[in-house]
Structures are given as C-alpha cells and as structure tokens.
C-alpha cells in the first residue's frame, strides 16, 4: 500500500514521539483532529500504527513484508470465488466445448446425477479429444475428464494463499470450491488464476 504525504508525516511523528494522542499529532501538523481521522484509520487498519485507549497511537514497527503477509492471511476463498460452471458426466465432448464458449470459462466441473463432483475438464483435455478421430458428439466427457479422487479442491473458508500454492504445485488453472457432505462433494464455486490476480491487485491498492 502506497502512503500519501500526510500519512508519511503522521507515521514519522508517531515513530519519534509515540505513544502520542490524535490531538497532539493534529497540533503538530496544525490540522484538526477530524481532518486527520481518516489517515489515522488507514494507518491503523493497515497495521503501521496501533491505538490504545487513553494512551494514544504507537508505531508497531512491522515491516512492509510482515504487513503484506498479515493481510494475505486475511483473504479467504469466499471473498474472491466465482460461480462454477458445471456439466453432467453424460454430456458429449462436443457439448462441453460449446459450454466453454457460451459460459466463457477455461474449466468445466463435471457432476453425476446427484450433483456431486466426479471430474474436471480443462481446455486442453477438450482439445486433446478433438484431435483424435472420434465423433465428438458421441464421446461422453466422462471418458476424457480428470476424475475423482485425483481432483484438487478447496473449501470457502480456506485461505486464498493456500489455493494459490496448490495451483502452482499441481500446475493447474483452477480449483473447484466444494462443500463436503457425507454423500460427496457439492460444487459451490471456483477459484481461478484470475480471481487470485484480482486479490493481488486489491492488496496493493489497499482495497481489502
Ligand atoms: P489446461 O490443460 O487447459 O492447460 P489446466 O492446467 O487447468 O488447464 O489443466 C491441466 C490438467 O489438469 C488437465 O488434464 C485437467 O483436467 C487437470 N486439472 C485441472 N484442474 C484440476 C483440479 N482442480 N484437480 C485435478 N486436476 C485438474
């Protein structure tokens, strides 16, 4: 997060004089307490400053890297997930390719008749099937999909950073977000590299 000039001045005053009250910071900058309030709130929320009632503000001494890690650990799958695109395991590869275009996604999640996750279809899975000699409208997706138990998935309360690590580790583009039940996995969302890129940008912009 980029600090503006006034926020940098406040930080310096607190570093040199803390603990110091909001009133005293305002006096030093010849501003009103009300004018400073938003900047103090931002510095406190971002973790640069801490405030104690009746004592005032003090500098936490945390480095940018420590604050970044703390903020990263506060981002969860539920905050950035998208809607999943789900198809039935009996549809044809031809229809799956049509879904990829119509729904504008890179990965389809395949479910059985009880709506439980049974497979994943990526763009390359569909391309691979298309360069063979098979009749695509007669080829069911469950022949070519990556199937359970080899599917890597996550849950809505998992940390986004752990999902990012799994995507890198497994060299895949997305994870289904599931609800685990006794009967199977219900697909409730998806996390793609795009969702993670959005979180990354929000982190830098201080929008979290
Ligand atoms: P692409 O193959 O289009 O580059 P991916 O890198 O996501 O897309 O997929 C690579 C392979 O991994 C494909 O065979 C796909 O079925 C499989 N795959 C994709 N996502 C998952 C997942 N969450 N769990 C297990 N396998 C996956």
Automatic annotation (TrEMBL):
UniProt domain CBS: residue ranges: 80-139, 145-208
GO molecular function: DNA-binding transcription factor activity
Limits of the HTH deoR-type domain: 3-67
InterPro entries the record matches: CBS_dom, CBS_dom_sf, CBS_domain-containing, DeoR_HTH, HTH_11, UCP026546_HTH-CBS, WH-like_DNA-bd_sf, WH_DNA-bd_sf
A Pfam family matched in the record: HTH_11
CDD domains found in the cross-reference section: CBS_pair_CcpN
Keyword flag Transcription: yes
Keywords (A to Z) from UniProt: CBS domain, Repeat, Transcription, Transcription regulation
Name the UniProt record assigns to this protein: Transcriptional repressor CcpN
Record carries keyword Transcription: yes
Source superkingdom: Bacteria
Taxonomic classification: Bacteria, Bacillati, Bacillota, Bacilli, Bacillales
PANTHER family from the UniProt entry: CBS DOMAIN-CONTAINING PROTEIN CBSX2, CHLOROPLASTIC, TRANSCRIPTIONAL REPRESSOR CCPN
Matching PROSITE patterns: CBS (PS51371), HTH_DEOR_2 (PS51000)
